[in-house]
Structures are given as structure tokens and as C-alpha cells.
């Protein structure tokens, strides 16, 4: 089944590669100062006593018939279920019960964090769901993906390093305005709460409230980044990823993974592998994984961490070992395209210092905030586009038709800067 799909890998890569002359560097110059976080007062809790907040969903099984619904009740545990029904059948309401947990971090104590997994949903069906209690309920909806298959059209949004600034808001609003997006591939670095003293975890809550306008309606496929580590041993916080793993559940057991930081799912026409660069990161991770990407014809690798946008040619560097010094990436039609999309708009601002001259592996690069869309059309073709925040959604800052490496391994051509 894996051979039938577009293969995508999500990873937050820490170290990059550097070498020789290449494609297009955008001449667009934008402000480079750090962005400002939205005030907590803007990202406040919804009205009503103990109102459920920070509602978000993600795929809850391997094939797309499950959904994990998550929410936080700030004051009391109740109620511990989500009620759901098909949009045209509200006589048949069903419930899935949640596990809820609290955690503390330094001087912070969380609300009750609920996760309920809904199973055996029908494919390609719109469901309404409701969380809360007698006093305050909140209602949302989602649409399940079509059954897994090679020719199922399906569109992903790709967002990374979002944070919760005015620029982050522009990115999220921009993505929200695109009616094609069905699921978000999120490449790590979520709230940037660790930018605050003692990693003020109220900023994890405000981030959950911030992304709810999309994440309660579309599943976000989560990848962990370095800003999820929250490791503060001097203050007794010695369990890495504690806030992240309490708040964001993923279906890692469905792919026989032993860690929520590593898992895979199938969704419509995509086979998505989520990797974490916090086990064996950097060069050792590249040495381990790059040959597997090439051998298995991974179509695209999406990464975050660097706060800019860059798309590579199909290149491989698998001949390189530290011991032989043969460090020259070469064009390889079985290799993935590597896309860095850490330009969601977080508080750290843009990374605008590129390797000069532009390396040969680099097809397009630009230091602007934005998001990307991947429209899988069928087993052979997918249309990819990158959208700058400062443009209207119809403007494509960068785009490429992708040809599936398994079914149609022909050379692609890209068209940076075209308008739809
Ligand atoms: Fe980041």
C-alpha cells in the first residue's frame, strides 16, 4: 500500500548542508525585526463557566477512520466525553469518552487536558461534534478523508514554526482563507512558550486558543521541534517534551511506534512519516535516513526550524560519509525534494542570512513568512505552492508540479513567482 501513495516525511531538522551555485533567490526584502506575540488578553478563554477551550483534532488511527479530539476544561474535569454525529443525522448521537490529565511545570498548573479517540468513522463524511457540559457546550465539525487509495484527490496545508505573533496570525488567517486545505502538516515548533521566564506555560494555553479556529475543524498532523523540549533541569523540569506530549496526542501506536515523536499515517493518497530530530539529529540523522529516503522514493521531505522558505532540487548526498570527505550533493531522480518551511511567523523573526552564492541544490529561497499547499491530484501528479503572507492567496510565491517517484518518475519543472 505504501508504494501507491505520495510519500511525505515531516521532520524538524537542526543542521543543514552548504555548497555551490544554484537556483533562485528572491530579491524581496522584508522587515527582519523579531515579531511580537499577541497579548494574552487577545487570546483569552471563551465565555462561560469552565468552557472547553483549545479544541483541536488529529488523525486517531493509521488509515483515517479515527479522530483524536482534544480540549481543555480550565476549572473542573467535567465533562469527559465528546458527542458526535453525522451532519445530516442528529438523531443518532454517539459519545467517545476522554482520558484527562493535568500536569505542572515550575509554578504553573494546567487545566484538565482531555483526549478522546473516536473510532470507526465513515470515510469522506462530515461530522458535527460537541464538547462541554450542561452549562457551556461548544460545537465544531470535521470531514473525514476518503478511503486510502492512490488516485484520491486530497489537499494538505503545510505550516511550521508558527508561534503566536501578529505575523503568526496573518499566516493562520491566510491559510484559513484557502478553501482547498483539508489537513495541516505541522512541522514543529508550536507555541514558543519557552521564550518566556520559566517557559510560562500560559503561552501553551494561549497557543491552543490561537490555533483553534483551524485546528478544531481540520486535523493537524503534529511533529515535535526543539521548542517542544521544555527542559529546565535547574527548576526540576527534567522530562523532555512534557507540555507537548500532555497536550498533543498522536496515533503512534497504530504504526507500532514506541514514541509519540515518531509515527506514520496514511491519509487519502499520502503516506506520511513523522520523524523527530531529537534522538539522533543533525549529520548522524542524515546519514541514517537519507539512503532510506532515496531507496524508498520519498517524494517530499518537509522541515521547519530555519525561519525562512527554501525548496531544493531532487538531490542526494548519500555518497558522503564524514570519513571520505565526498560532500557534494548530486541530482538524483529517486531523491526527495527538501522543503524548509519554518516561516510561520514566530517571535524569533526571520532567518535572512543565506549561504552565498546560492548552492546548486537550492531551487528557490526567500526569507518571508508564509505557508504552503500540496494538492495531490492522483497517483502521478501533485501541485505544490507556497504563499507569502503579504500577497493575496491567489499569488504563488513558488510552485511546482510534483510527479510521483514511483508511478511517474519524470523530471519536474518549477515556476517561482507565478500567479494563479
Ligand atoms: Fe523554530
UniProtKB/TrEMBL annotation:
Residue ranges of domain Calcineurin-like phosphoesterase in the record: 155-309
Reaction catalysed by this enzyme: a phosphate monoester + H2O = an alcohol + phosphate
Gene Ontology terms, MF aspect: acid phosphatase activity; metal ion binding
Keyword field contains Mitochondrion: no
Signal peptide per UniProt: 1-22
Sequence ranges assigned to domain Purple acid phosphatase C-terminal in this UniProt record: 335-393
Main EC class the enzyme belongs to: hydrolase
InterPro entries reported in the protein's UniProt record: Calcineurin-like_PHP (IPR004843), FN3_dom (IPR003961), Metallo-depent_PP-like (IPR029052), MPP_PAP (IPR041792), PAPs-like (IPR039331), PAPs_C (IPR025733), PAPs_N (IPR015914), Purple_acid_Pase-like_N (IPR008963)
UniProt keyword list: Glycoprotein, Hydrolase, Iron, Metal-binding, Signal, Zinc
Keyword Glycoprotein: yes
Domain Purple acid phosphatase N-terminal per the UniProt entry, residue ranges: 52-144
Cross-referenced SUPFAM superfamilies: Metallo-dependent phosphatases (SSF56300), Purple acid phosphatase, N-terminal domain (SSF49363)
EC number: 3.1.3.2
Family statement: Belongs to the metallophosphoesterase superfamily. Purple acid phosphatase family.
PANTHER family reported for this sequence: ACID PHOSPHATASE RELATED (PTHR22953), PURPLE ACID PHOSPHATASE 11-RELATED (PTHR22953:SF120)
Protein name per UniProt: Purple acid phosphatase
Organismal lineage: Eukaryota, Viridiplantae, Streptophyta, Embryophyta, Tracheophyta
